[in-house]
Design goal:
- It is a single chain.
- It is built from five helices and no strands.
- By secondary structure, it is mainly alpha-helical.
- The protein has a domain at 26-82.
- Helix 2 packs across helix 3 (38-57).
- The longest helix is centred in the middle third of the chain and has 20 residues, at 38-57.
- It is elongated, with a radius of gyration of 13 Å.
Length: 83
């Protein structure tokens, strides 16, 4: 990934960083909303993280940005956990 690509990704997420209210984690949501146990939730999150990083390496930024919605039905705000 080039420096310009890294800069683009960093800029696109700036509005989400430094929130004052604490968001629940993806794992908490999966366990509460979907009734998953901790191990299953962690495995699904790791699979999504792996795919996220692969998409970034391939330059597929829009798909990477939408990974939380694709895997978990969550807004891109939750990508913060992937960095």
């Amino acid at each position: 990934m080039t420096e310009n690509e890294q800069y683009y990704i960093a800029l696109s997420w700036m509005p989400y960083l430094g929130r004052k209210e604490k968001m629940r984690s993806i794992k908490e949501i999966l366990m509460e909303r979907d009734g998953l146990d901790e191990d299953v939730a962690e495995e699904l999150i790791q699979q999504a993280k792996d795919e996220f990083h692969e998409l970034l390496e391939e330059g597929r930024f829009l798909e990477a940005e939408d990974i939380c919605r694709t895997h978990f039905g969550l807004e891109p705000d939750y990508l913060e956990e992937f960095f």
